[in-house]
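Progress narrative, work stream C.
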Amino acid sequence: MPREIIRTDQAPQTPPSYSQAVRAAGLVFVAGQGPFDPATGDVPGETIQEQTRQCLRNVSAILAAAGSSLEKVVSATFILAEEADFAGMNEEWVRWFPVEPPARQGAKLPIRPKGMKVSIAVIAEA
């Protein structure tokens, strides 16, 4: 299976240095998605729950463009600006993955784009 770059206008556009996602080897690798509204580029909401929700909307749109879905996510990485936001992020996370959640790991955000509290990347079955 050849490598395919995935792009959609339903998620924030990426700089030329990386892709929204790449489909290869039967998987879809979605780059870290911040909580940016694809229409405005703004960060909607101030709470970690609102921002987690927007990240997952963006991830979902990219997966759909690749012919996949959140139900096919096998691994996820979340990056938080503040460790104190973990409980709130997790509260929203379980709404999107209520059963058979993907494997998951977390880290601390090394940079602080204006207003951004979280970024989420996933790997899903194609």
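Work stream C, second folded protein:
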Amino acid sequence: MGSIAADVHEIPVIDFSNKELKPGSHMWSYTCDQIRYALEEYGCFVAKYDELLSNNNEDDTQIFCQSKELFDLPTETKMKNISEEPFCGYLGKNPQVPLYEGLAIDRATSLEEVRKFVDLMWINGNRRFCDIVHSYAKQIALLDEMATKMVFESYGVEKHWKPVEAVRSHVLRFLKYDEPDQDSDTTLRFVPHTDKNFTTILHQTQVGGLQVQAKDGTWISVHPKPSHFLLMAGDMMKVWSNDRIRACCHQVSLSGHEERYSMGMFTFTDGEIKVPEEFVDDEHPILYKPFDNLKYIRFYVTDEAKKTKDPIKAFCGV
């Protein structure tokens, strides 16, 4: 892995709050080009998204207050958050990532699904948690939808958007990293990895630690700011683009003795999609067969996948 050199690179910051950002406008076309460049070069970009604040009429730190309240619940309560799908339920106390803990709401843009989660965690319910989390999930999903649609437009493959849009689903994940023991010098809280879904949007508190890896191996720190969200391409967006887009390799590296909270919106495709024909030519032969994101997730945790150096190629490579 490369050394940390945050001053060598700068992740593009793209303003989604610009009043002139409307379909068909010059600003829209310019922003599409910005997004495409960022995803091809870094596999990610920082989205400035003030809409979340104006719609909630309160500071975005409210979501982290709710997150802290959630993680303060007894472990036996949090363990009720189970799922048949990998990575979609409660995760914690894993020897490989001992300081990490996470809970998830599948299909979090649905008020009914958020209520089910709340009723599971609190016997008497928690109306404030439900309202804030559902509103937050809807706003982040709208950001993801706009940005992903603009990716399709930037490549001139808009006609393929509707079939992909129809099979998209979202998992909202609450993330916590405990402070290490006083006598520990642990700095790496989560190992370098790429996400296995289509796109991910990460939102940090004032305690940072998130880093992404540049093409030359250096690590770039993503400094938290109000209304800033990191949108990352996952393995499946890389596959969909026939390797034009990079899957963002990232890690959490944090020294000191503070707890760290963050939020992650993970977008999946539930049905089979394929590489658009526009991405295939003599210079760019097709690299992947049609794929199903959820089937890939299930494959990824098998012994077969663990034995291969490149699970994506093993799963759907040509």
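The mean pLDDT is 89. No further action is required on this item.
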